[in-house]
Amino acid sequence: MSKSKSRCARVYVGLGSNLDNPIAQLRTAKAALSMLPRTRLERCSSFYRTAPVGYAEQSDFLNAVCRLSTELDAVMLVEHLLAIEVQHGRVERKQKWGPRILDLDLLLYDQFVMSTQGVTVPHPRLHERAFVLYPLSELDRDLIVPGRGKVTELLVSCREQKIEKIDTTCLGSS
Fold first, then answer.
1. Marked catalytic residue, from 105, 110, 141, 159
2. Domain containing 28 — which CATH number?
3. Does the residue 157 lie in any domain?
4. How many folded domains does the chain comprise?
5. Catalytic residue list contains 140
6. Is the pLDDT of residue 6 over 90?
């Protein structure tokens, strides 16, 4: 009996943190993503400092996006992302869009559009968020968000959102 070859999907995962040394949180999250089973970390964007969205009474966030190639289905991948958040000290949020140690969001799973078992792709608000669109455009300027359009065109509607690309080389490694 021959074993069929699993199909790899190209996925994009958003990373965010504004508590407990956000730079270290994003760096260790990237390392954890590189260790996922049947998954290869292809590339990660720069880090971006962004103003909080929704609940303004908190520190700025650090955000990034990583591109992965995976044989995991979307539901299994999200389960792994939640496990990484728990390993980083995830607790139930008291405030929607409030402060967090680490937030990992499945943004895109190939060009699939789906909403099932708590997984929605594309991420429902990614087309409105500079902290997602800028890092996505850094990774792939020609990327199309299903049902929304090209990432670089979506950035136009986000130009008023505060965002700053940061240089982490002077901040040491962890």
1. 105
2. 3.30.70.560
3. no
4. 1
5. no
6. no
| Catalytic residue chosen out of the listed positions 10, 49, 60, 90 | 90
Contact 174, 24 (CB under 8 A): yes
51-105 tens-digit pLDDT: 887 666 789 999 999 999 999 999 999 999 999 999 998 776 665 667 889 999 9
Is 110 a known active-site residue? no
Distance, CA of 121 to CA of 113 (rounded, Å): 5
Give me the amino acid identity at 5: K
Domain of residue 90, residue span: 9-121+162-167
Residue 40 annotated among the catalytic residues of the structure: no
Which residues are registered as beta bridge partners of 63? 16, 48
User: Could you say which of 103, 140, 148, 167 is catalytic?
Assistant: 103
22: tokens are 């956000």
Indicate the pTM of the whole model.
Answer: 0.91
SS3 96: coil
> Known catalytic residue: 73?
no
